[in-house]
Amino acid sequence: MYVYIIRRLVATIPIMALVAVFVFMLLHLSPGDPAVIIAGDFASEEQVNSIREALGLNDPLYVQFGGWMINLLQGDMGNSIYSGIPVTKLIGQRVEPTLMLTLCTMVIAISLAIPLGVIAAWKVGTWIDRVVMTFAVFGFSVPVFVIGYLLILGGSRALGWFPVQGYTSIFESVPGFLSHITLPALTLGAVYMALIARMTRATMLEVLNEDYVRTAYAKGLATRKVLTKHALKNAMVPISTTIGLGVALLIGGVVVTESVFAIPGLGRLTVDAVLRTDYPVIQGVILVFSFTYVLLNLAIDLTYVLFDPRIRY
Amino acid sequence: MPKTALADLVTKSVRTVALSTPIAAAGFMSAVLPASAQSELKVVPHADLRNVDPIWTTAYITRNHAYLVFDTLFALDENLEVQPQMAEGHEVSEDGLTYTITLRDGLTFHDGSDVTAEDVVASIERWGARDGMGQKLMDVTESLEAEDDKTVVLTLSEPYGLVLQSLGKISSNVPFIMPKRLAETDPNEQVEEIIGSGPFQFVADEWEPGNQVVYEKFEEYVPRDEPASYAAGGKVANVDRVEWRYIPDAATASQALLAGEVDYYEQPAVDLLPMIEADPTINVETVDPLGSQGVIRFNFKYPPFDDKRARQAALWAVEQADYMYSIMGDPEYFEEFCGAYFMCGGPYETDVGSEPLREKDLEKAKALLEESGYDGREVLILDPTDIPVAHGQSLVTAQALRDIGMNVRLVAMDWATMTSRRAVRDAPEDGGWNIFPTWWLAADQLNPITNISVAASGDDAWFGWPENEKIEELRDDFARETDPDTQMEIIEELQAELYDFVPYIPTGQYYQPTAFRDNVKGVLEAPVPFFWNISVE
User: What is the pTM of this model?
Assistant: First the structure.
């Protein structure tokens, strides 16, 4: 298995290189000129040109790309065109909120969605099943920002339990962190929960019709044991795939959630950079997201071994 | 007001649920807001501060930031008169060509060094390389020298009426004074460090673009004795710390203000105002008494608007009220009509020539359009949908032009894309444009020199590149004239020419309200949000 992991890790190198080329080319071929934005309304052509020169935007694309790649290999992603702050520092400032938001969302979503999905499958066709599935359809269909606003109105304004916006680092204050992260995690979790609950229900329904489940019941096992030990474990491979793929969905939702709750995370950084065509920042963030995604896929593949001993790498 | 009704409904129903839910929230909330002996003002600014060098960029947000950190030699007061700020005073030679400016005592930079005349010279030179009004001043400057540590001597090559107005300019780019070592930075590159001599210091370590900017009171700052008035007078820092918290979502920012998480919300969205105004603990005030001017700009290089009759047709076809209702909604926040190119309420307000804008006449517009030889070609209007003030103007213009038979296409895009595209000089069908919308703070539009949208110097002019010798001559005459009455005569002649030439349509004068909690005292009325004089109780 170690050989497999190393092989997969080595395979990420060409993938990342391709991502880098694509991101760079797409960005530089799309319209928008940061020099014009910086120069403002009063600048003459020459001034715009000298800003472009100073930013290195006048060099041919391959020179710009080469320079960026050489720096990248040394761990330098360049500086933001606007603030002049190194991209690695900007990303560093933003990693924790996004990571924590995603983790909390996953914890909340998985710990609620899998039991709900199992119960819905077990009680299929009853009112319990219908309630769970109605909830899932709701979570999947209502836009993230609407859920966010509703939770702010309810949780922050009416009850006063949670702050409206912002983020406190977990290393600074744990209660502060929890109060800030709860509403965003619930907001972002709604879609994810819906996705996992539906997938769990569907795979469980399939598994519950298998012969070995009937055998388990026949030999007098308790329902709880049948559901969790025999059925759920066998249903876990497709569920964990869904959990992994759902993370891509989360990345989209993170952008919206971070905007609604004014959380200074990577999603917001991306949107702000895109709106300003801040090339080095966009390139850096997309590379980080892609790399995370590749690693995540590897992690999911490895979890299959836990659930299904027949799978070997 | 359906929004508030919905909010109430949700609030009530959640409260009912809450009464039966035994969770103690108080402990949770107190953990969120650490107690502090320091007084602090929490502000939601109108935009994210991405660059901190106020000479490098003209962005209003950077200008607002710079007013906290930097000081200026002269400054505009509420009577729109220029007053000394860092200057003790100044003397003008009899021939009007030599200005001797003395610095006042007690000026210190945040790095501990004294402010000297050399710092002033270097700062003004850097500003003069970037700013439009600064460039004009530099054009007539023979020499700018530090005579000794406290005396700056400016010698002109010809009489110029706007020396003090230039040095006391209130809006972008403002001639802020920096230490010489920073002011020697290439004006096309950003300064490496933000060191000023203003009432607050910039805390570089706590600056997180896209999230927060922090300023701390500069204890050594010596304010002037006069009361604060616009950018002039004593800049007394009454809070220890000013924190800008950028909240991109208008609904969230409003809720944060209502919940008391922030104290001051610079530009609340107009459609959310009824909700904010309904809370008695919040003050909603128009802090900028001059307001802003909406602008519809034509491209003079290509038909149909290369012909002035087509531009006049557009002027007859539109109505300011349509624009104002679309972008502001509530008539409390705009003028029913303002025909002055240099703003109503400003020193050069006049109504001369404004009939075509005042009286909408579609028949006249159609006749003018026909005379211009309009051939039914497509007119491209850039439409930045992410900025309501600009988007509303595009929509209203499109409809008005369609009403007189023009073939209009709205090109939807975001603001950043528009700022790049409006600089494109190619034909509209090759990636150029015919019309774009924007707006200016009135403080920028008060005279024909700072109002760059009336400049008509062809390829050197602002986007759209109009060319009109008479306008340029009148602008020069105005700049050289030192007698106020004659200046006003020039303005009247100029405005008559502007309404004939139509460099842009002034789509109305409106006022952006600011909201702050009632524990915030001493908010100054000014075209720029200043943070001195403010205390938090």
Answer: 0.84
